[in-house]
Design brief:
It contains four helices and eleven strands, in the order αβββααββββαββββ. It is α+β, with helices and mostly antiparallel strands and about 190 residues long.
Length: about 190
Amino acid sequence: MPALLRYLALLFLLVPCLVAAAEVKQSRNSETELFSWQVEDRGFSLELVQLHTDFVRAVYGARGFPPALIDGIAEYCVFGTIAINTSDAQLSYRVADWRYVTPDGEQHPLKTKTQWTTEWMKMGVPYNWSILPDDQTFEVGDWSQGFTTVRLPRESVFDLVYSWTVEGKTHVSRIEELRCAPEHLPER
């Protein structure tokens, strides 16, 4: 039994090493003062751009969404997201496998496009193009974009643990200290 305990203790120590953290480039828009984070790791480029609540409301309001649905998505922390296959092989991802990690260490699932569109269809809104697709398979150089939604209040800080697969090998990475957009843009 002591050998099993040593094995489990070693495994426990190694598990955090299985989630890589590549270099993340953070930038700030000088006009809006909103942040973006971009990372390229083992053939997958991911960029997340803070979106202000007013922008999110305008996007859905311009498409005729009822106020209740606009209010629902505006309660989320929303990022414009760009995913690119930078590998030399086919790449796939599944948003359902991604988690946001709050400062207390708890992991939470992101709300997927399928979850949003199901909710919208029940309220009579047949709209489905704004949210990052649930899962995709990219050929070399393919890319996609859409909104990524995290159920946290404005200015919350969290980590994003995300995964993708290239040539049958699943990779996991982490972007630390993402921040939800502020409630209000700075006065000019």
